[in-house]
Amino acid sequence: MPAATTKTAMAGTKRKLAPSKDVYVKDSKKAKVGSNSKSALKQDKRKSTAKPVVKVKELSVSDSDDSESEGGAPLESNQTDGDEEGSDLDDSPNAIEGLHPERAKAAATNSQSSKEAHQKQKLLVNQRKAAKPMADELARTKQLWERLRRKSHVPAEERKKLVAELFDIITGRIKDFVLKHDSVRVVQTALKYSTPAQKRMIANELAGTYRQLAESKYAKFLIGKLLVQGDAEIRDLIVPEFFGHVRRLIRHPEASWILDDIYRGVATKQQKAVILREWYGAEFALFKEDKPETAELSEILAVDPGKRAPIMSSLFELINHLVQKKLTGFTLLHDAMLQYFLNAKPGTEEVTDYIELIKGDEEGDLLKNLAFTRSGSRLVSLVLAHGTAKDRKHILKTYKDTMQMMAGDANGHIIILTVYDVIDDTVLTSKSVFPELLSKDADQQIENISLAANDLNARLPLLYLFEGRSRALFPPSHSADLEILSELDTIRKTTSKKDPEIRRSELVKAISPYLLKPIETAAADLVASPFGCQFITAVLLGAEGEKSAALQAIAETASGDPTFIQPPPEEQEEQEGQEASDAEPPASHVSATASGGRMLKSLIAGGRFDSKTKTIIPTIPALNFADILYPHIKDHIIDWATGPSSFVVVALTESDNFSKKDELLKVLKASKKKLEKSAKEETDEQKSRREAAQKALEGGEGKLKAKKAKKAKGGKEREVGNKGAAILLQKL
């Protein structure tokens, strides 16, 4: 049975039951006298209800494919007699057993009259639809949409014909389609399969109506599709129509979302400035500028300080309105909130009242939404720096359930770093951050830390206390983080009393037990990646506590053949006619990776290299990793000395705490010829770099690439050979 027919049957059943219910209202009161009256009444109700259902099922639908018409297809009475297959009831009153003849006759009459009323009602619906403008066109476009939306079921040639027919119908009257929920999707489908020229045609036809479309519950999605799938010409046609109406549209329940999507996703820098400036008051909406100089409120107030009071008042009023309405997820709102806070006077009621506004959201949705945008996270960081101890405690409590999400977010992690830098109560920080960030379950902690250590953002809250603001931890992509942290340094001088180094050391002591256990348990997984090796080095050199088990686990990863390199995927499938195993192939040996060699060398050195003094600052107490590592690698020590990680052996010979140094030197002297050969021959890494450089030079790829290729090749005189082996020869 078609969906529309099913819907009709359901609706008809409800209307037919109503008269039957009225028939028994009076009798149900009298039935209380007899002992079997209740059971008889239930039996009567069941049997009287069954008949109308059968009568509705006997209605058939005309052979129409218009499944999209509201209310179903036109009804035609194809009523059959009671002998029809599948029908086991009769229309006669006597067929309803257990009923008084008069009641059965009334039930049958009511059923028949309800069916006729239903047919008349459906007929009126169809007549009203047919009388509407473009009724035939709408019906046909719905049929086309029904076919086109099933992309995998329509051949390409048929789709082209259907799309062409669809554009023939809608071209020139797209405005008539877009404001109806059942026809705007037709235009969206046409847009999906359109060419760039057809997209621009649709955009031009709708010019002047985008503000109205944005306020529509359904048509607003068409604007989003046009902006995402369109080009710069379409963007510059749509976005300016919102200028001058930002303050009203941002309050609108539908238009506010599409306005924020435009601001966040597609608007140019100048278009963003126009939109944001309208938050500063009606003056900026009435006297619009196509190319404003800036949206920075500080620069606007520097030009005309007399406007400060009305601008700040207008800005606060609009921010407060959206916060009270729980519309706190807009990037546009977060940018405006940051502008207000940056221009509020520190130590005044402006800042105090504003912090109370941010804290006032009982559900904490505002603070949570702020954490995941660049402006919002910076605002929260500033509030933490300027706020009181009570304010900071409230904010930490709000973020209790979102610490892990914030750590992995490109913006949210800066709030955790700010907490480390500005909150003097390290006990509060330790209890509020570390268990939520790393989990309270010991097994889950190991899994979480292993994943976080290899994540570009999530590793920052783990290693910031050990690495500080080093370039290794903050690559150029995180330069904005360093700018925010530098901004906070100036503020915390007046709002925090504890010495930064004391605060850091107390937090390191608190987080160390969480981080040492995963190194002991999941050392093999961590050493397999560069970020994992960096994590191990930073924690073992900077953490406090017992490290012997973790150091032993790292030394065990260096056991085995140091020349093993994981084969390429194509070589893993089948070797010598045997099918590959389902088990994952082992990773390359730790010595075969540059990050693994650096990690072992740093642990043997037992401290961090100070670039100012050009010396190693040893950790206290000493790691003594050389004595732990040597038993695991001594059987392959010559392969280490002539391999990619030869500097690990160099570090062993230079270590003051290595007790087997004489034994090592004796073994190296016995293999002096191998060291000499390795020191002169080109390594695999040098060979691959040379071939890549030569290929770039021969390809004639331009001056810039040639310059880079020359640098990769090694400059004027490229040195060959294993440098670590050469240094060992000098020591011998």
From TrEMBL:
| Extent of Basic and acidic residues compositional bias | 676-704
- Give positions of region: Disordered: 1-133, 560-593, 675-732
Which keywords does UniProt give here? Repeat, RNA-binding
GO MF annotation list: mRNA binding
One Pfam annotation reads CPL
The protein's matches in PROSITE patterns, at most eight in alphabetical order, are given as: PUM_HD (PS50303)
User: One of this protein's GO BP terms?
Assistant: regulation of translation
The highest taxon in the source lineage is Eukaryota
Compositional bias (Low complexity) = 1-12
**Where do Acidic residues bias regions lie?**
81-91, 570-582
Cellular component GO terms held in the UniProt record: nucleolus
Q: InterPro entries under this entry?
A: ARM-like (IPR011989), ARM-type_fold (IPR016024), CPL_dom (IPR012959), PUM-HD (IPR033133), PUM3 (IPR040059), Pumilio_RNA-bd_rpt (IPR001313)
Which residue ranges does the record assign to the PUM-HD domain?
140-519
| Role, per record | RNA-binding nucleolar protein required for pre-rRNA processing. Involved in production of 18S rRNA and assembly of small ribosomal subunit.
The entry's protein name is ARM repeat-containing protein
What is this organism's lineage?
Answer: Eukaryota, Fungi, Dikarya, Ascomycota, Pezizomycotina
